[in-house]
Amino acid sequence: MIDILVPEEQEGTKAVVRSWLAKVGDVITEDAPLVELETDKVAQEVPAPATGVLKEILLNTDDEATPGAVLGRIEPGAQAGARDAAPQDAAKAPPVFAAPHDEEWAEAQDRDIKPAFLSPAVKKALKTYNLNANAIKGTGRGGRITRDDVERHNAAVGSAASAPGRAAPSSSETASGAQRIPHDNMRRAIAEHMSHSVTAAPHVTAVFEADFSAIIKHRDKHKAEYKKAGVNLTFTAYIVCACVSAMRAVPTVNSRWHDDFLEVFSDVNIGVGTALGDKGLVVPVIKQCQDLSLKGVAARLTEMTEKARKNSLKTEDVRGGTFTISNHGVSGTLVASPVIINQPQSAILGVGKLEKRVKVYEVDGVDTIQIRPCAFVSLTIDHRVLDGHQTNQWLTELVRVLEVWED
Questions:
Q1: Would the pTM of this model clear 0.70, i.e. be above it?
Q2: How far apart are CA 399 and CA 407, in angstroms?
């Protein structure tokens, strides 16, 4: 028997089993996706370590999956007929997929259910919300209905039901009409991670203002050229490069606190928060930014952002960050304070909404009023690591680079 193991290295506070893609007795192929795991930062697939028959499932949906834990076992080289000869304990193991025409879903046997299987998490959500699987479009592999599909459909139904003349509340609603939405694994993990951060680190935030005129001029000049190369030249790319310059001025921002020492990193690995709508967010990491040009940073950002929005990030794409940028201004926020530090890092940059503001500039000794595109930038620090002087020095260099950007 060959063990199916949880990967030793993962990014996030903890991992849980999201779903199995096979059931006990199925013949599986080496390297084929077998189990989906989920952390607060990324979903990942665990491939089959060998070709054979899945004999045991030891960790089921929503079970915590610690690094190195045994998820299940494969009998290598076994053939398709081996299910009937499976051991009694394997035969009694709860199946992780149920065919849509079993007793529980017998009433749907005459309907056109597109997915071949419904996972336990999906079945549970369907029962919780009292929903019909036939009404939901599956976006998973082979048209499978995922838990996210159920959540989205339930939210849509809830919005429609809030209109005048709505029917009586379903079993997923309270008597007052409020909707109860169970937390998914990612939301729970994010909550734990954020709570740990504010408990572990004393947060202090400093706010500066940056004039983006030079950045906009440079971007307007070069974005068409970058686009031809398949690269999206975003403001975030400039901010990443400015962060690298600020790290050179104050290296201790790029660090990690330990009880007995401060670990200052030579590589600047910058994570960029990427929103996934109501699902939460992930933080893909641009590695070794100190060695990248603006075009190199922009190319990496384009790649990572696309992967994040397609839910195709791998564990290595979100691990190893030493600093994080939260571009909260894209949704309209001017200032957010504090932006919670992505532990175990020492600081996080917040970037507010870019908008035109009236500024006073001295020109040839005379004060002039000008309209400039500006944004507030904030650095939230772990006050165990950094003080106000270092914080302001770092932000001063960041703003300087943004405001004097040249070809």
A1: no
A2: 17
